Amino acid sequence: MAPLDQLLYTQPVIRPVHVTLTEPHPNFRTLVRTLEDPYYKHNYFQVKRHDVISPAFDVRETDGFFFLEGEFPGVSNKEEILIQQLGSRTLLVETKVERFDLEKEWGDFAPKTRQDIEKEEVENGIERSYSRRHKSIGHEHELEMEGHEDGVTVRLAERHTGYMQRSFTFPCAVELGALRAKMRAGLLVMMVPKSNGTEEPSKRIVIED
């Protein structure tokens, strides 16, 4: 069953994870197409993540093709993006954005994490207890040895890290096997030819160099 916002609005305020592409002017046939969208019958729809966001896309159509452009900031490696067909009319695009690795980028200038320090101490034969109690006759006192913090203070966190996912069901059958995809400075561009063929098996689509 399609989400209520897609049944009522063709351009919801919040970008939905899945979009059923229909006629420019919604009508009763639009509602039927949305209700019968094969995406919602696919097992992948059952996988739900709380940290997923929907990348912004433009979709344009000509007599023979659909052209899609999607924004994937911070993603430069084409191997990190999954493009998969789900049946003859549905296309899934997914990736995961990792937090930027300070140590990998800045080397010795990056702060050491507690795990790094503990590893160095073990390698150097140093044993340290981060919290211990020392008892003496007549009284008890606690000695606390402060552990090393990660050394990083987050002052602002606006970037999204985690899953990015968007999927589309086209209003007609398309030749997803002939789909062409390229990465251009964080922009995923795809050319999808239309088709009158039968439903194709699901498979992963390779992004060109």
UniProtKB/TrEMBL annotation:
Cited CDD domains: ACD_sHsps-like
PROSITE patterns named among the record's database cross-references: SHSP
Pfam families, sorted: HSP20
Coiled-coil residue windows: none
Domain SHSP: 48-209
UniProt family annotation: Belongs to the small heat shock protein (HSP20) family.
Protein name: SHSP domain-containing protein
Organism: Scytalidium lignicola (Hyphomycete)
